[in-house]
Amino acid sequence: MAVTVRIPTPLQKLTNGVEEVESSSGSVMDIINDLDAKFPGIGERLAENGKVRRFVNIYVNEEDIRFLQAELTFINDGDEISIIPAIAGGSK
Amino acid sequence: MDKEFTSEQLQRYQRQMMLPGIGLAGQQKIAESRVFIAGAGGLGSPAGYYLAAAGIGRICMADDDVVELSNLQRQIAHNTERIGMSKTKSAEISFKSLNPNVEFLAIQQRITKENVAALIEDHDIVLDCSDNLSTRYLLNDACVLMSKPLVSGAVAGFTGHVTTIIPGQGHCFRCIFEDMDPYDKSLDSQPGILGAFAGVIGSIQAMETLKIITGIGETLQNTLLIYDGLKSEFRRVHAARNRDCPACGENPTIKISGRG
Question: Does ipTM exceed 0.90?
Answer without folding.
Answer: yes
